[in-house]
Design brief:
The chain has 13 helices and 14 strands. By secondary structure, the chain is of the alpha/beta class. The strands form three sheets. It has a ten-stranded mixed sheet with strand order 3-4-5-6-9-10-11-12-13-14, covered by helices on one side. The protein is elongated.
Amino acid sequence: MSTAPTELVANKAPESAEALNRRASVANPVSAFEKTNLLGFSPSGMEQLFAEMGEKPFRARQLLKWIYHRKVTGFADMTDLSKKVRSRLEGEYEIRLPEVVVDKTASDGTRKWVLKMEGGNAIETIAIPDGNRVTLCVSSQVGCVLDCTFCSTATQGFNRNLSMAEIVGQLWVANEMLGPKAKAEGVACSNTPTSVNAITNVVMMGMGEPLANYQQVLPAMQLFTSDFGFGLSRKRVTVSTSGLVPYIDKLGVDCDVALAISLHAPTDELREQIVPINRRYPIAELMAACDRYVDGKSFQMSITYEYVMLDGVNDQPEQARQLVKLLAERPAKLNLIPFNPFPDTQYQRSSDDAIAKFQKILMNAGVVTTVRRTRGDDIDAACGQLVGQVKDRSRRRERWEKLGRIPVRTESADSKPGDSK
């Protein structure tokens, strides 16, 4: 049986959502490239760029179609743009894609790419095929600014936010790498303006906390769903968050996409141990924000609540009944995630029998509950296993810990399952 979540820094609440966004943004390095990457422009941003060049808005849309519909990266080939515009683009801009440094395919078809980022870091992006659907798990940070105790990414510390171009580049590369094979196997998306794209769904569930990088994640999602970008339905783009309440509210105003919540515990006492941001935004505030998010949507939707199953920690029948009280009257889907182990973790996966009993209690109470099938674990691509290559993490974490600004895990041999500190 697993030991309980280990102790947090005494009485130190995690930073607010606004502070997390501010701190993460100043960690971004100055680009070593002279030219501006056009993958970092949303449709409205591209129109503004062309307006500053003295060009009509439709010219921006032409360029976007070349990049995202036709997959053309050379300006000389964009023949419906004037020579003057092409010459200026060539001189000041480029379409710079992430470099693939590792490409692995799991026995179940899951594909993992390690992509080199600026500053010598690397992140991981995962493509998960399932019938006629291919879902891409996209990273938003190098490392993670939060410190969830069950997640391998969190053990790497945090280096910086990804830029919009680095987020968009993950989807561009995945479509490029999967396109010909996906077409041959008949799994390319055919019901969007960008039917050449193999990826049908995007989940912001890779490395990092997406809402702690809001300024870069938002325009990326707008490009994902734009007819002049990747053309994905808003229902097919999901943002997952550990619970940055102010940015859940902001997302509800700015972008109509699906929402997933990393819940993982039914009570504040337990959740504060395994998802430390709960010390700043407790469950009552989080659920109220989720209610507001659903109420403000232009289409009927439910929120997915993610719940990693930790042996002896959060998988007891009483905790299932507590979840019923929390979710039964809400438009909710609960996704039970068997824990995926990683080196030096204190946790173990709940047994199949415990997961089945837990699910049955919830289903009998009317809560739609699924069990996520583990995918890609033989190449360390399963949920909670992503680590990438995060540089300088020890110096950054040491600084923050001295300031008492982030929760810290310490080993405790005396802890018992479900103990709170």
